[in-house]
Design a protein that fits this description.
The protein has about 140 residues and is of the alpha/beta class. The chain contains 6 helices and 6 strands.
């Protein structure tokens, strides 16, 4: 787990997202046309809002694609949350300190989870490293 530092831009995104959603935001990553917010465990419903109103409000406000991910102290559950909306068949932890995560998904979801140019898997790796002692995430 690395120390998390925020840019001024990221702090503004977190502040606005907290204000408009009412959820406790733990982390935020901004890349190109999307923002991923990590919300406190149990705040996912609050973050998205009734009939996804908060989510739509964020998309309009930031003019970017917005995704909320629920934090979990459990490494496996957190990685599974990062992979949503795709169904994870299994998660194996390897290495002396369980720092390598191997995710098994349905073969038809594999390319979607990796994303164009690896954008999705890189985001999963980045967030997994920031919040848990995970060195690498691999998809099988």
């Amino acid at each position: 787990m690395s120390e998390i530092t925020f840019s001024n831009e990221t702090v503004q995104y977190i502040s606005l997202a907290s204000k408009y959603s009412g959820a406790i935001i733990k982390d935020c990553i901004v890349e190109d046309d999307r923002i991923i917010f990590v919300v406190e465990k149990g705040d996912m419903g609050v973050a998205i809002g009734s009939k996804a109103k908060n989510l739509e409000k964020m998309r309009t406000l930031f003019k970017k694609n917005v995704k909320f991910v629920e934090f979990d102290e459990d490494k496996k559950r957190f990685v599974e949350n990062l992979c949503k909306p795709y169904k994870v068949n299994s998660i194996d932890m390897e290495g002396d300190d369980a720092s390598i995560v191997k995710i098994k998904v349905n073969p038809r979801d594999k390319s979607k989870l990796i994303g164009k140019g690896g954008i999705n898997i890189n985001m999963i790796r980045k967030l997994a490293r920031r919040h848990h002692s995970i060195r690498d995430v691999q998809i099988k």
